[in-house]
Amino acid sequence: MPRAFLVLPGLFILTLPALPASEPVPLPKDTLPGVLSVEAVPLGLAARRATPADNPLTEGKVRLGRKLFFDPILSVDGKISCASCHQPDHGFASSTAVAVGVGSKRGRRNPPSLLNRAYGSAFFWDGRAATLEDQALHPIASPQEMGHTVPEAVKRLQASKEYVALFQAAFADGVTAANLARALASFERVLLTGNTPVDRFRAGQLQALNESERHGLWLYESRAQCWRCHSGANFSDERFHNTGVSWGTTADLGRYEITRQEADRGRFKTPTLRGLIATAPYMHDGSLATLEEVIEFYNRGGGANPNRDPIMAPLGLSPDEARALVAFLKAL
Hints:
The protein has eleven helices and four strands; from the N terminus they run E-H-H-H-H-H-H-E-H-H-E-H-E-H-H. By secondary structure, it is mainly α. It folds into two domains: 6-189, Cytochrome Bc1 Complex, Chain D, domain 2, CATH 1.10.760; 194-330, Cytochrome c-like domain (Cytochrome Bc1 Complex, Chain D, domain 2, Orthogonal Bundle). The strands form two sheets. Strands 1-2 form a two-stranded antiparallel sheet. Helix 10 (291-299) crosses helix 11 (319-330). The longest helix is centred in the middle third of the chain and has 13 residues, at 177-189. The two termini are 15 Å apart.
């Protein structure tokens, strides 16, 4: 098997060059496998996903959500789709530093990957949504993203015979805002990545990692202290931390903008490390272009500021150790 990471059986994600944030991204096409399983879970992930009782996974909802995800019908100008910022060929993240929406409007933050968000407990970099269903509708109404309103998007769907039929097949009450959110969330719940060399190594296939990658794993679990935030099967504690990224250069205060708690100033949600070889650039603002830059940032202890997380400190990694840690991260 090639040493590329897998998203769903048989689907390989390509790493594409990052585009300047001022350039609109061409509308991505659906290149996913013909059928997306609602049951299959790759090696290394928890079997149970966070699925609300009022939105059980069904093939009909996934098919509908998939069509909506790639359709620009939800944007005010009919030119932007969910896939425009969460590109399948880029690990369901973005090739631009920050989101580029309708009219080439630039957002403040890097679109995070949707891979394994089925295991999430907070959504967006600032955690303002508690569920995938809640998250799904925010971009539609954002002036910097799709620039539409949810009620108008629903009316547009209700005027489409094709969508009316698809919604009626998936939901008893047809086209509603709640069902729009449920369909998109259902599709996102089947976007899983696992069965990596790291997962196979942990399952007992000791040759799955080479010497450098094994050294990187040891560093990850010891001196580099990555595990303190990137923990669990999905390599994220789903919490919020201030690492000092771009501190003092932007007005983005992260979690504080939602809670207004002083302790949350500059805190952002810990992203998963799975599949990150495909999702450059990195950090909430897309300010670091490569994994090597990310490791150097943490090696020097992050960005100094009064609210920096107390676990942040210089790591003292040698160049060889930094390279080994990057090798391990790429094996994820």
